[in-house]
Amino acid sequence: MYETLLIIVAYLLGSIPTAVWVSQYFFGVDIRDYGSGNSGATNTYRVLGPKMGTFVMTVDMIKAIVAVKLVFFLPYAFESDLYLVNMQLGLGLAAIVGHIFPIWANFRGGKGVASLFGMVLGIQPNVALCCVGIFVLVLFLTRWVSLSSILASIAFPVFILVIFNEPEHLYRVFAVTVAMLVLLTHQKNITRILRGNESKVPILKHRDRKRQRNRK
Question: For the segment 186-210, what is each residue's pLDDT rounded down to a tens digit?
Answer without folding.
Answer: 888 899 899 988 877 766 555 555 5
